[in-house]
Each structure stands twice: as C-alpha cells, then as structure tokens.
Design a protein that fits this description.
The structure is a single chain. The chain is α/β, with parallel strands linked by helices. Helix content is 41%, strand content 14%. It is built from 10 helices and 10 strands. The protein is globular. The protein starts with a strand and ends with a helix.
Length: 280
C-alpha cells in the first residue's frame, strides 16, 4: 500500500520531499504555496528542478497538491469567485511545472445562494481553468461532510458536476473517509462499506476514484461535522479501519492521512497504525 501524510513546504518547496522521506511516506500531499492567503510567490526554475530531482530519487508516488484554504469555487460573491478561479488556474500551472499529477479541491460553499447556483459556479470555474491551462494534471473533486451550504457531500452531487465538465478525462475523485462518514455513508461494517463502494460505482464509477484521504472522525455517523481524528481513536474506530483497509478498491489507491498532530500521536504513529490495521 502507498501511505503518506500532508507535509510542510516551509523554506523551499523541495523540502516537502525531504520531510515526506523522513516520515517514511510512500506518497505525500502538500500545498504549493501559503494556503492562508491570496498572494503567492512564483516558483523559480531552481526550486522546481530541486523538487523534481528529489522526487524522482525518492521513489514516492504520487505527489499530491491540495488547493489553498481561501478559494471557494461555489462563491456567490464575484470578487471571491474571480480570485478562486485564478487560484485554481495557478495551482494547475504549478502542479504541471512540478510534475505533480493530482490537484485536490474542495467544491466550496454556496453561502446560502442555493445549490443550483453553486453547481453552476463550480462547473464554470473548472471549465474556465481547463480552458486556461492545458496540461496533464488531474483535478480531484473531494467529497465533503455535508456542513451547511457545502457542495459535494453526496455522490450524486459530484456526478452532477462531473457530467458537465468539458474535459472529463481531467477530473477524478478524492474520497475522504471522515467526510463520507459524517455525510452518512457507512464505512465501519463489511456490509456498509460494500454498499457504499457499490453506490459510488453505480453513480460515479470506480474508475474515477484516484485518491483516498484516510481520516477518522471526531463526530459520529451522519453528524455533518468535519473534524478529523487520529486513526482508530474516533467514531470510525479501529474495527472500522480494519474493514476499510481490507477493501480491494481502497488498498490499491494512494492514501493520504490528514490526522492531528498532538501529544497523543503524530504522523509517523498514525501511518504505523494504518499499516498495523491493514496487516491484521
């Protein structure tokens, strides 16, 4: 299995590769810039070269970039929406330059404007970005926990967006276990997980599932609350992750942990727990 975590790019972006190696990752996720602001520094040729060389030598695959926090592809506010589309375009470009195959994005919040309007915003944002950037980067649409006004908490929502993308070969799905559980998809039992996987296949198609965000949940089933927890210490629990990690469609995909770092555990301990539960 390919297991990794989200790593920092503090210093220069190539340091992300070093940190992933130090943690014992098989794959890793990062931001390509400061995730908490709209402004960014252009990547220079030297740091791009360093990143690619370190990545090639590491054997880790695939590297993944996550969109920053501020962009909202469903935003009703025109200023925020324009900045969000510009951010998506820039991230696609940066991923292409860095030889990163996957860019993960949340689908945003319609902010009370309504799901129909949110859908059209998201669809046009992605289509506009693909028209502006033609490269081999695949945009992965991440399922959400179903918090108020959020887009993409159901497989049907993701399908609706997917079907209206002009270049369907450039989009896939990132499946977050915490978000799915919080949105009402049962993962803890063999029967429940099989039903969820079957439903995903019927609605979207398993061929479009490219990445797993492997996270436990602080809140219970169908809570609609997005709070990640250490693997096995949340409401999915160790028994639930034994079920998840035994599923053939999941085991073959790269898995990124976005679990807390605190006095109880860090990234290395959470990855060790995943490997332990997967091999029981």
């Amino acid at each position: 299995m390919r297991i990794g975590v989200h790593v920092s790019i503090a210093g220069t972006i190539d340091k992300a590769v070093d940190r992933a190696i130090e943690k014992g990752c098989d794959t890793f996720q990062m931001f390509s810039r400061n995730p908490r602001g709209w402004h960014y520094r252009e990547l220079n040729a030297r740091e791009i070269e360093l990143f690619i060389n370190k990545l090639d030598r590491s054997g880790m695959s695939p590297p993944v970039v996550h969109m920053p926090y501020l962009p909202n592809l469903a935003a009703p506010d025109d200023v925020v929406y324009k900045r969000s589309v510009e951010s998506l375009i820039e991230e696609l470009r940066r991923c292409g330059a860095l030889h990163v195959p996957y860019l993960v994005t949340h689908l945003g919040s319609h902010r009370g404007y309504g799901k129909a309007g949110g859908f059209m915003r998201v669809i046009e944002a992605i289509n506009s970005a693909f028209r502006a950037v033609d490269n081999g980067v695949m945009l992965l649409l991440e399922n959400t926990a179903g918090t108020k006004n959020s887009m993409g908490s159901t497989f049907e929502d993701i399908k609706y967006i997917f079907e209206r993308i002009e270049h369907k070969d450039r989009v896939g799905v990132c499946f977050d276990t915490c978000h799915a559980f919080a949105a009402g998809y049962e993962l803890r039992t063999d029967a429940g997980l099989k039903a969820t996987i079957r439903h995903f296949d019927d609605v979207i198609g398993l061929e479009h599932l490219r990445l797993i965000h492997l996270n436990d949940s602080k809140w219970d089933f169908n809570s609609r609350l997005d709070r990640h927890e250490h693997i096995g210490l949340g409401c999915i629990g160790e028994a639930g992750f034994r079920v998840i990690l035994s599923e053939q469609h999941i085991r073959k995909l790269p898995m990124i942990l976005e679990t807390p770092i605190d006095a109880r555990r860090g990234d290395i301990e959470n990855m060790a727990k995943v490997r332990e539960l997967a091999n029981e």
